[in-house]
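We modelled the chain as a single entity of 635 amino acids. Its sequence is:
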Amino acid sequence: MPPRLPPRRTPLRAALTALALALAGLSPLALAPSTGATPPPPAPTSQSPDLGERVVVFDPSMPVAEIRDRADAIWEQQVDAEMSEERWSLLFRPGTYGTAAEPLQIKVGYYTEVAGLGASPSDTVINGKVEVYNRCLTDGPTQPYCVALNNFWRSMSNLTIDVNGTGQDGCRASANFWATSQASSLRRVDIRGGNLSLMDYCTAGPQFASGGYLADSRAGTVINGSQQQWLTRNSEVGEWSNGVWNQVFAGTIGAPSEAGFPTPPYTTLDTTPVSREKPFLHIGDDGSWRVRVPDAQTDSRGTTWADGPTAGRDLPLSSFHVATPAQPASVLAKALDRGKNLLLTPGVYDVDRSLVIRRDDTVVLGLGQATLTAVGGATPVVVRHQAEGVVLAGLTVDAGTELSRNLVHIQGQPGNKQKPRTSTPSTTLNDVYIRVGGPHVGRADTSLRIDADDVLIDHAWVWRADHGIEGFTAGASGDTDRWNTNIGRQGVVVDGDRVSATGLFVEHYQEFNTVWNGEDGHVVLYQNELPYDPPSQADWTRPDGTLGWAGYKVSDQVRRHQLFGGGVYVFNRNDPTITTESGFEVPERAGVRLHHVLTVNLEAGSIEHVVNDVGARVDSSAPGVPSYVVDYPAG
């Protein structure tokens, strides 16, 4: 598998590694990931509901070695399984796992969810670690390439980690490592007694990372290290080590000041204007399994659980249709029509018709990175305009081989003045990931379309794949075949008013990656890479002659829009001579404001300006060096 991004300059990597190690008081050590056999089938758990063979439920009475062996076997299967169909959910009943002398130390691979089953993170305590390390994409002794750039699609949530590195070498023992990139959220975690490192500084190689997302969590020292960009929302941190290009904080106690921007590159909002935490499974005091659906918040700060239970409503498991990948889409659609919520157990679902949500307060919750694949040009998920308070969470939606108009469509009547405005979003998307290409050919015109007002996007990665296993050959890394085959014209189109986003990542689409047509949009952290694969400048030029399409487009008629912390990156791997006129394109109005935005070159191609005609050019003469605009318009 080719690396997702090119190596950046050695001095930057060395400086970040030195900083991380200085915080831990250590020197570098090398460690390469291991491989292993396919895990054995899970043992039945008599007191757990039937959630399928890919949901493993652990109990604190189980021996530490048994839990570790089971988790390790899954990790060994999943550590390199980037384009596989295996999905796993590892759930921990309330209680304490591991001891000071025998800690529980496990690792998390692709398409794996690790979560506690308590009502609060403090109900499930792991004495040990839950970690993600760099993935070594080449193992050559002279030029190792160990990075976190492709560490996607995994999560950890709703538990406490008392960091314990007993038995590990000095470097590995220095932190709980979560070296990931996009689509790998940390939610409702409490890291105690040690550092949380978002970079793996213990392996050889450049150690780059491109995350990421932390919400509703608490940690002492957080080592950002090589993370290019990161959003920390509604959390509490004791210390944050550094920034690279774009580190954003919203409603976070202990967040660093943004006063020195771009040195360091911090963007800090004291509160989060609109938030709604992701629903989660938990076991009630009576032993029943439930899904807690947190309430929406406005102008919030800190975690939802530090001073008591997270406010919200509990739904019994009986209110859900528990779906399996063996069930056809018609069964899931009929369950929604009968008024059921959906709980998608881990796996890949072929969806040949839309799963249409018509009922208020419907919850669709995926476990273990459950994936819906479009079949026959279907739009897998549709929320009808009359449905309010809907939550879509923990879903990956894949394009199929036939062209879909959309992959997720939140229908609405934009600008409907008759609709009363409420504090609860009309639809919330938590950890919703959309993919065009990668494991197979994919085609979708617009991946995510939002027509409704008052929608909240809370962490989404909308990705037209820059690499995969489709077998492409023509062009650099198969890029010419990729450009002509994996069709993705636009990533996100927003027509609704008052749509908010906290953590919006959109990459590699063939025209505008994001188009914002609605009024009063509010975005906190936006990350974009322009497509790697245009075969020539002619393929990357608009009909009116403008060079390329901006990574973020606010339409000319929009009067009010705000973006806090945004970056557009360029790596024209297939033709390094290609240039793009601007990273961000917005109307010149006082009500349209961008705060802390940048462009950066990743060793191929160029961008002439950051916003419209403002901001310096970035090109391969200074790879990895951003061009910043502090405020647009200035003043």
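As a brief sanity check on the tokenised model: The CA atoms of residues 104 and 128 lie 5 Å apart. Residues 10-24 form the longest helix (15 residues).
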